[in-house]
Amino acid sequence: MKNNRFKTFISNNTIVPIMVIVLVFAAFVVPGFLNVGNIFNVFNQNAMKGIMAIGMTFLIINGYFDMSLCTLVGLTAALSCGLQESLGTVPAVLIALLAGAAVGLINGILVSYVGINAFVVTLAMMMGCHGIAYIYHKEQSFVARSEAFIHFGTGKIGPFSYISILFLLLLVIGHFVLRYTDYGRSTYAIGGNAAAAFNAGINTKLVTCMNFVVCGFLSGLGGVLYACYAGASTPALGWPDMHMLVIAAVVLGGTKLSGGSGNVWYTLGGIMLLGIIDNIMNLLNVQTYVSTMVNGLIMIGVLCLDKVMMAKQLKKANLEG
Amino acid sequence: MSDGYVLEMTNINKTFPGVKALDGAYLRVKEGEVVALCGENGAGKSTLMKILSGVYQADKGSGEIRYRGEQVHFSSPVEAKNAGIVLIFQELSLVQELSVAENIYLGSLPKKGFRVDWKKLNDDTKKVLEALECPAKPEDMVASLPIAQQQMVEIARGIALGARILVLDEPTSSLTEREKEALFRSIRNMKAQGVGIIYISHKMDEIFEISDRVMVMRDGRPTGDFATKEITLDDILFSMIGRSMDQYFYRYEGEPGAEVLRVEGLSLKGYFKNISFRVRAGEVVGFYGLVGAGRTEIMETIFGIRKADSGKVFLNGTEQHIRSSGDAVRAGIGFLTENRKEQGLVLGEGCRKNTYLAALPELTKRGFVQEKETHRIYDYYRDKLGIKSPSSEQEVGNLSGGNQQKVVVGKWMAIKPKLLILDEPTRGIDVNAKAEIYKLIASLAEEGIAIILISSEMPEIMGVSNRVITMAQGMLTGELSADEVTEERLMRNIMITDSTKSA
To answer: Does the beta-carbon distance from A313 to B144 stay under 8 Å?
Structure first.
């Protein structure tokens, strides 16, 4: 029985054995990998991407994804830095966050109420945000003036950066919302079978729209945090593939792109795996492009493995029935 | 006014642009009464049910719905559901990725504060499942359950919602005999508690078994309202199609020709074991068994979709090594799959394009499809099979079920098959179209095609086959000629190995 439970756990969390293999490999082969400082470093470095991935997890469980993320981060980073002088730090950050949520809301309304395909909507929004970010930046970088703002981006408590603590906090909140609230369970139901969810009396349009807002807000937050971390914003932040990296992390973790299943812990796994691979490549002095390619290969490998495991499980279920 | 009626729909009209879908329709259900609602597809049954549940609104000024003595008006399915009118649709509407418990209480999860109360959820679900004798556990993911149990979960949902009116739309379409009995027990149980049940089905034996009254519709009008005890099958059929049904089933009675298919000792672990049988030219061989007996899997193996562990397949006396559906088509085997919308047709494409799909290799010269030839082929089979479509380019998805099925038959005819496997060819199509399909099967047999017919409808298998092979739990359990076949024998044969569970 115990053995069985272990098997189920592994087949539901393919990311875990893969992570173990990668860690063991890295520990032996990569000099400088296996020390506590380095591992924490990886975690801290990827916390911003992780925060955005939490929002994306909500949306992907709901059955959609958002490509506007990659330019939205540039826009909100720009707002949070650029408005500091004229309005003050707190209003600047709030406006930036609001902008993230607003872009999410527009995405959500267009997809959910107007009924346009999400791929097209978020692609268009991606281009729109890109344009606005550049116009606003006038092709220059903004430097953050506020000490507190920069301090938040670089400060630490023990080995954890402030940002990574925020990431952990949001993971717990994300887990709670998805697992224990109506809203969360409705999100799963819509992603799994939207018609069934609608028939059961769930306000599918509202929930879907809200998940776009969640994703937009957390993407926006990610952008602001990047600005905190770097102490500045550039119009090219996030461009051109941030959304892909985030979606990759979510899917790599085990959340299905088709919707209906997954959770934020998977996403944590996906983020960490991608981060660790990046880190290994860095330590081995491999070119970035090679590392990107390796990420792609690993992703295909994991998804194939997942498919095989799933087929096995289903076959077993059929036989038992 | 009430007379014990918990639901009264009177004089309901519904007009869609260009079509009068309902014209003076009515429906009355007493507490604890099972009313069977019959009619061909398109007769207005589902429109009426959608008006009842608030999906559609009846035309203004056309009639009224009284529910528990009060005039009501539901503007959404949620309102109807909250009032205790629960519809269980033909297509399973479950969320595959969620647990059984969550599906049952979807939209009304029990909560503690603003948290979902998982313990109560699972405990409540367990009680409902036990009452239904459903072996699934509350925590099971729905995707991991066999289809039949998934359907039980749907029914459990209706019970859990405390329904006063339960609408079941073809609820047994994927249940085994035993599960059907369990369903009927729970229907009787709900009856006893005063729940009014509207039972939509094409299966006449079920209607006679479970219903108290039969309500028949045709072209949006009520054409029959009977007490079940007082009528016969012919009464219902007559009301449904508006003419008598002297000849409903057709069977080609000519002498069968040479052996076309011979299967020897075919086995596939987990599905079927040691299967041997023959089919001759011009012969219709019926395969009868419970859902899950392995009939479809055998055919899929012959057709190259599955790979057998052992055994041989001969076609016209020569052994075949079919490894893919392409091989099977080249060998002259056509396979009309159980699920035409998902496996048989490209719904968004036109009739012509669907018709030449399987014959494409023969219609292609140097990589180009011979368009003219495809038109000729479509026209030929349209006339031969009586496909009714506004044009050759009409999207198949817009045709009626019967016409869709004819397009699939046409697709397989176009490869000039030696052997045609028909898996539930009349599923979900109306009475008239069924009769046409039966006629078609007989004429295909007359042309010398060997035909295997899988069907779960007993009258159909008895009425159309020259020979019936019975199966239970992956094994052949008997063979009956058209003269020998009786309902009792069929039932006995498909239940044979019930106690020895293995395969």
So the answer is: yes
Which pTM does this prediction carry? 0.74
- From B357, B380, B415, the end of a domain falls on B415
**Minimal Cα distance from A313: which residue of B?**
B144
Judging by beta carbons within 10 Å of its beta carbon (0-12, 13-18, 19+), is residue B251 exposed, middle or buried? middle
Instruction: Give B445's contacts (C-beta < 8 A, 6+ positions apart).
Output: B252, B254, B282, B283, B284, B451, B466
Which of A200, A256, A313 comes nearest B107 by C-beta?
A200
Contact B43, B218 (CB under 8 A): yes
Same domain, B202 and B148: yes
Interface probe, candidates B106, B121, B167, B268, chain A, greatest A C-beta count within 10 A: B106
Residue B48 and residue B174 in one domain:
yes
Contacts of B68 (CB under 8 A, 6+ apart): B6, B7, B164
The whole-angstrom distance between residue B84's C-alpha and the CA centroid of its chain comes to: 27
- Both B280 and B268 in a single domain? yes
Q: Give the 3-state secondary structure of B278-318.
A: EEECCCEEEEECCCCCCHHHHHHHHCCCCCCCEEEEEECCE
Number of domains in chain B: 3
Q: Which of B415, B434, B462 is the last residue of a domain?
A: B415
| Residue labelled with tokens 């108290």 | B212
- Give the number of beta-carbon pairs within 8 Å between A and B: 77
For residue A240, whether the previous peptide bond is cis, meaning omega lies within 30 degrees of 0, is yes
> Is the ipTM of this structure higher than 0.90?
no
B388-420 pLDDT, tens per residue? 888 888 888 888 778 888 899 999 988 889 999
Q: Is residue B343 part of a domain?
A: no
Q: Facing residues of B421 across strands?
A: B335, B452
List pLDDT tens digits, range B55-114: 888 888 788 899 988 899 888 877 888 888 888 876 667 898 899 999 999 888 999 888
Domain hosting B451: range is 249-332+417-503
Tokens of A122: 């978020």
State the nearest Cα–Cα gap between B266 and chain A, in angstroms.
19
